[in-house]
Amino acid sequence: MKNVLFFLSLFALSIQAFSQEFKLKGKVTENGLPLEEASVYVKSSGEGTLTDSEGNYSLFLEKGTYTIVFSFGNQKSRQVVLDSDQMVNMDLGGAEETLEEVFLSSIRVNAQSPITYSNLTNEEIEDRNLGQDIPVLMSYMPNVVTTSDAGAGVGYTGIRVRGSDATRVNVTINGIPYNDAESQGTFWVNLGDFASSVENLQLQRGVGTSTNGAGAFGASLNILTDSYKKEAQAEIANSIGSYNTFKHTAKFSTGLIDDHWEFAGRASKIRSDGYIDRASSDLKSYFLQGSYVNENTLVKALGFGGSERTYQAWYGIDKETLENDRTFNPAGIYTDENGNTRFYDNQTDNYKQDHYQLLWNQDYGKSWSSNVAFHYTYGRGYYEEYNEDADLVEFGMEPFVAGGEEVTTSDIVGTKWLDNHFFGSVFSLNYQNANWDVTLGGGWNRYEGDHFGEVLYTRFARNNDPYEPYYFNQAEKNDFNIYGKANFAITEKLAGYADLQLRTISYETDGLLDDQTRFLNDDNFSFFNPKAGLTYEFNPGNQVYFSYARAHREPSRNDYENGDPEPEELNDFELGWRYKKTAVEINTNLYYMDYRNQLVLTGGIDDVGAFIRANSGNSYRLGLEVDAAVRLSDKFSIRPNISLSRNKNVEFVSTFNGELVEYGDTDISYSPEIVAGNILSYMPSDGLELNLFTKYVGEQYMSNVEAENSKLDSYFVNDLNIQYTWKKAWLFRELVLTGLLNNIFGEEYVSNGYYYTFDIPNEDLPSGVQTLDGAGYYPQATTNFLLGLTLKL
Hints:
The strands form 10 sheets. The chain has a 24-stranded antiparallel β-sheet that branches. Strands 1, 2, 5, 8 and 9 form a 5-stranded mixed β-sheet that branches. The chain is built from 6 helices and 50 strands. The chain has about 800 residues and is mainly β. It is globular, with a radius of gyration of 27 Å. About 45% of the residues are buried.
């Protein structure tokens, strides 16, 4: 309570204080068209803002002479003598692209590309960056659904785009693959508070443009980490909130030393008890960066990573428990010698991950530039689990005789380990002039991973030798891709896009799994992924585009463990219209994604909460996406989005009661037909901003057979975000107070779950088998809050 009172008192004091400043405002355009999210900042201090949907900006600065930089991939600057309120407009047409923004130019797209995308800037991230993971911060983007195992956005979180799960979202950090090479998932819990080191991100829905790493089947997420700073600065950010949630962050930058060198870093700690019982998280992370820059060269060396310790919360609960005790967590439950129900204290997941990147961008002049990057990731960790009445043989131990009876089971505490290395290089060469933008690029990446388990304790049996694994298997994966793509002018109004990628993969495994079966695999794939499109501009601010893309994707490790999977193929058709005027921006997109052998989620999960997938034959996703930004006045704006879709398995066949059953056309699991959102923004005064975030997700099935008890109900949630920025506060460059009230109406909703079936003998059935089914649920938090204070020097 004392901490809350401190925040409220400081907020009240800050509103009363102010300093005399002048207002610098204007509009940023490119060839006469307004530019949204262009950067406008003071060169000496880095203090700045972004333009709104109309290209307008405003800055409050004290009297003085400033060099103002206008940047949107390219940049221009202008010196301003500020001794009164002034208006300065800037057109960036014909300006040269900066080295900092070129880093991701080989895999990112812009409004001239026939690709469906959305951007999220660091300013938008900062509004709500109080400890929740990146997927939660992205939850209000078009056709995005997010979920949290612990219920409140800290710990394990997940994301789905167009109904496709996180294994289909190809994530790159500075152009380097982040998805786990084997599981193909992304585990943001390993990089706690990574959002505090993100400059901006771009989410491409559908196949998107060619990039490094596994092929995208739902979306591509391209993240750019912090840019170098020209002036020295520091930042301390702390937040507190519901469920004993705390975040502590410290950042610094030396600014450019001798106009060429910059060193920066961040250290963070996040702790939360979670909404679900015992679903605690203890996350530590770091980010270090050294940069060298001159007129034509930018070199960055980065090291970042983190460690996580979370109490397991991936088991979910059944329907009856959901109705009567929705925060119950069955993880670690067992019965002691006296028959009492207990929970194992150390039923935890523990993992460390360190990333190292060396990035080199070179501008050769005369339209040529290149990017080369080398990377290495080391990950290691385990989860510990109490197994009640476990089969000794599955833990590599022999049954024994005690008291004249054979003992085949025991209570066992075991750990399952993963120790892996991921390394490689990505590269691209770019040529750009008035009519052509051509990129040749590619990458080679190798993964080496060991999977093994150890027995720490047995109640009745005799342990193996210390640290002797009861299972061990190795995996190796090589991934090579090369691509060429071009945007080119066909006529003054018509532009073309072509993109060809060749990708080869080899994946080998050998050794025992945790159930003592041998896991032997040796697969090789070669995929050719062509893409093409057209963009036609009727007039400034009004264009249409069409694109076709083919993508292939190899099965994941879990797919191999759970069956005999085939690789997937996707043909993606996108038809879009973009409209941009002074106060209104509309993006409309119609898509058709036609799959062959799509690996759809069956609804089931394995023993570590990973979702089980299976090939579904033919399937498709047909949808309409609309998002807009409307400026109602100088103080009000809205940013609605809605996605309507039809997601179907064609002539789906599955086993029920021991027989193959033809279900016809069924809904694809975890694919709601309606996903909608809105951001209502109100700025009553300079420095004070209020945002109301709204999200609606329609009902969805967790199975592919449309079983009624596998249905998740629709939900509608609202979050309120308040932020006050006090510039030149006492000794600080900025003092920022942030409040976030999540789920303000206390909606009791479930955003994720699983559906399972199992067979039991039944002599009344001809097959002798009866299938029973059920569901598990991951309830999300009701009303909860976060408060943050950021001090910028």
